[in-house]
Write the structure tokens for this entry.
Amino acid sequence: MSQKINGVKGMNDLLPGEIEVWQFVESTARTLFGRFGYGEVRTPMVEDTALFVRSVGEETDIVGKEMYTFEDKGGRSLSLRPEGTAPAARAYIEHSVNNQEPVSRWFYTGPMFRYERMQTGRYRQFYQIGAEAYGAKEPAQDAELMDMVVQFLEALGLQEVTLNINSLGDENCRPAYHAKLVDYLKSHREELCGDCQQRLERNPLRVLDCKNEKCQAVAAAGPNVLEFLCEPCRTHFTDLQRKLGALGVRYVVNHRLVRGLDYYTRTVFEFIAAHPALRTASTVGGGGRYDKMMKGLGGPDVPAVGFAMGLDRLVLLLKESGKTFIQRPDLFIAVDETSHDEGLKLASRLRREGLKVDFDTRGGSLKSQMKRADKSGARFTLVLGEQERTSGQAKLKPMAGGDSVPVALDNVAATVRAQPEAPAQAPVS
Ligand code: AMP
């Protein structure tokens, strides 16, 4: 017997029955982001490795340890994208979008790839939906973007998600903070976990968001980045908070929020969910300002701010909510042995007229078809036999119980639509 081949570890299949909740999240985002003026951008899944090295940063976990990097047949070093901000920025620069309009708002969605240690809410192929606003350096842009995420979470019906904000300063004030932090951490080196002792040399900011309790205790007593902000950075941060207040967006200031990518300046933020189902993967999204990235990638000096939400984690939360996202059929058509072709034709016509129709192409006994109708969760069943065909009249049987409704075969769609919505059927198995 041939050996079975399984999918790649950390990369999941999404099958019908589960995909509906994903589609709900995506369509909610599309509608809402559209209202805020964001247009969709699609970039390739593979980029020149240098793009991520120069933007996300060589010393980050993402680039240093987690990228799927390979050589193509022409000897180029390519990487599966681990995130969406750098590819969008690359496209923005390549198409000289700044020469076409002063402010651009883009969103993207799709799979990202990181070779991470797998656990609940942490996969090797995962999905993000993110947005980027280019050309506006004002704190109002940061606030508007956060408001968009808040409205997105509301539209999904997800509560108990907390917005954390912080400022990492800029090239003027961050070096002093950085130096102070490194001095402080070095004096507590022995108390840090092994990973953080290495981070101390390579990427000291990351020590601040280590999950290890001892490292957290060290970080909590360390220097506070907000006390090091220069005047323009401080004003940006206070203005941001004022605007969030005006919008009624609730937030907490968390001076230890650093995020795992190098490209941020000033504002950084994260949305953290309280639900225990996410375990340690409680951050459902995050982002920040990256005013220097475009220039660093050889592009124009254009400020930008963006975020990415993890779809896998939003879907986990929605599944916990117990809501069902599957659209059940409006109608199941069952036929006797003389009416199979007519049933097939009627189903085809009603689908053209916009109904969701289930029909058992295998035929079989009426009893087995009725069983199937029950399982399908359809609102109504219509039995089509010789008598219905000759009279042109049939009955709509409500599957939730109650009286059947007489219907003319040439008026089925309108009659189904006119029926009041009955309570939901049992979930489709
Ligand atoms: P990041 O690009 O690391 O800021 O991630 C943004 C969001 O993507 C996170 O808040 C998570 O919700 C999600 N995310 C990041 N890495 C993973 C992963 N390996 N598996 C699932 N979701 C992830």
